[in-house]
What we know:
The chain has one domain: Arp2/3 complex 21 kDa subunit ARPC3 (Orthogonal Bundle). The protein has 7 helices and 2 strands. The chain has helices spanning about 5-25, 45-55, 55-70, 80-95, 105-135, 140-165, 165-175; strands at about 25-30, 35-40. Helices cover about 70% and strands about 5% of the residues.
Amino acid sequence: MKLNIRVxxxxxxxxxxxxIFTRTMAVMLPIAGAMTLRLSFGEIPIILAGILFGxxxxxxxxxxxxxxxYMINTFGGAYIPGLTLGxxxxxxxxxxxxxxxxxxLTFWRLLSAIALTQVVVSLGMNTFWLSVTxxxxxxxxxxxxxxxxxxxxxxxxxxxxxxxxxxxxLSLRERQA
Length: 177
């Protein structure tokens, strides 16, 4: 992937949409007294960046969205570098898993890539970092976070599959290939 004059504005827009979805339209739920579960659509633009422009672009979009979003609205929490890494991996992993899939991006391929990404990043890494930061056992956070992912993974897949299969996005993907 080359960062050219056409790609950078689209990535910036995806970062902005991610920040809006994550920081202003999210629902925070407490687990064991700490705000450790956020439900939002902020991952969708980051995953899209990885799928449309490659793993490096997805990684950079995730990092940028997390850092800029934290500066805008901290949700009253401490900065956790591990969560920034997780945001980057949210764009990197789908980009890696789906980089050779151009024309036949099926719902099931997308679902498996998003599911693997969310299990590794959200259930694994992010739960670990929140556990360490807030001194809450991972086992106490996992049931609620697993339930949230059971709902969000199909929603993410449906939205991204619908967006990626639109004619303007198909032409954008063909130009990038």
